[in-house]
From TrEMBL:
Gene3D superfamilies: 3.30.420.40, 3.40.367.20. This is Phosphotransferase. InterPro entries: ATPase_NBD (IPR043129), Hexokinase (IPR001312), Hexokinase_BS (IPR019807), Hexokinase_C (IPR022673), Hexokinase_N (IPR022672). Keywords: ATP-binding, Glycolysis, Kinase, Nucleotide-binding, Transferase. Residues 244-478 form the Hexokinase C-terminal domain. Residues 45-236 form the Hexokinase N-terminal domain. It is an enzyme of class 2 (transferase). It comes from Laodelphax striatellus (Small brown planthopper). Its EC number is 2.7.1.-. Pfam families: Hexokinase_1 (PF00349), Hexokinase_2 (PF03727).
Amino acid sequence: MSLEEDHKDPTKMVSRESSVDVATNKYYSRISTPLLRNTTKMKKVENMLSGIHLSEEVVSRVKSVFLSEIELGINEEPSSLQMENTYVPELPDGTEEGLFLALDVGGTNFRVLLLELMEGRLVREEVKHYHITDELRLGPGIDLFDFLATCIADFVKEFNIADQTLPLGFTFSFPMHQRSMDCGCLVTWTKSFKCAGVQGEDVVEMLREAIRRRGDIKVDVVAVLNDTTGTLMQGALLDHKTTVGLILGTGSNACYLERADRVHHWESERHGEKEIVIDVEWGAFGDNGVLDFIKTEFDRQVDDNSLIKKSFTFEKYIGGKYLGEIVRVILVRLIEEELLFDGDVPPKLLQLNSFRTSYVSLIDQDCVDEGTVHTETLLSEDFDVELTTSDDLAIVKYVCEIVSLRAALLVSTGLAAILQHMDRPDSTIAVDGSLYKYHPRFQEWMDHFIRLLVPKYAFRLMLAEDGSGKGAGLTAAIAMKLRAREKTV
């Protein structure tokens, strides 16, 4: 079966090879860790981890299923992809002018920003950071939004802009259902937030009410978005060919520019939009079971130990929150089978999430350098492994490498599916996130894999940092351009 051929029946099971021959798999030819001596032990290691290797047939099936879920979601049929309409109908084109505020809320620390745009260029940026206490994160929602309004007031007064009516873009990095460009209802709190009285409510209106209660500032909240949409907006400012936004950090998500006539879900009035930004919410891809054919015993264990089981399925294969934990459970299993460290399990390795994804990146740097310095240091200093053989070091490097490569391959497969669905001849993919920025080979692997998967589409990967901040201000600028146009009609 060719790489581009889609399976006609994506529900049909695909059998795996009992062992992996990397020489015959174009994806895993990127592995640089030298194979161990041809011993029975190494064959056992390879066989035990064979499920982590995705054959060309399996990758093609993942892509086919992803495309199927896109079509279902965009047509409002049951799908694991939310395909949320953001109601953002265009991207920055170089005509954006003026002063814009941005509020970036997604964790215990948040920011207020002031952006000045001139002919689509950022000529001024002011930023101030604030902290949300435990009491606010867990207390009544009205208190949280009053605090946000207080911080906005502090910011505009500090920068002497309190007398101006400034448009604000609100990055709210929690699951929400949008009903218009300036209406987003919280679906559920995540991370460390659990404020009462917010779930199901429009967070834009709650922020507006808090601003009105103060009565001393003139801020106009004109748009709400998540960090993925913000990354797309920031990317478009840097490169007007940008049509896809990707977050690849602790979590992962993607969005893209869709033809408006394909989008069925539309709760606000249409104004002849030709395109619209769709938030894929791909972290949940596979929550309905369509991706179970790639799930290994190690993935099941990670899921069983997660905060919310049987959710964020795709994210648990690719997100920085989970890659280190996948490596940890594999290493523990190899030790229990006496294939690593002579069967002695370091006590710390038994602790959940003790093997950080940053360790995976450092060890993979050893794979690039063909050395062992990071691997030896981490095992000795962080896990009290006193003596390691060359075989032990090679096995640890091998595990980190194949888990990383599978993640990069799955991210690339999702992006390839989006490029194929969009069917544009040339696209820039704007990317932000710690995993993409700090893993030594994610960018190289993704560039290589996407080209293999969709060779007919030209594309480039571009780092677009701070979409959650700058992207919110840019979205506010788009909202104001739309308002101005509607007034002239």
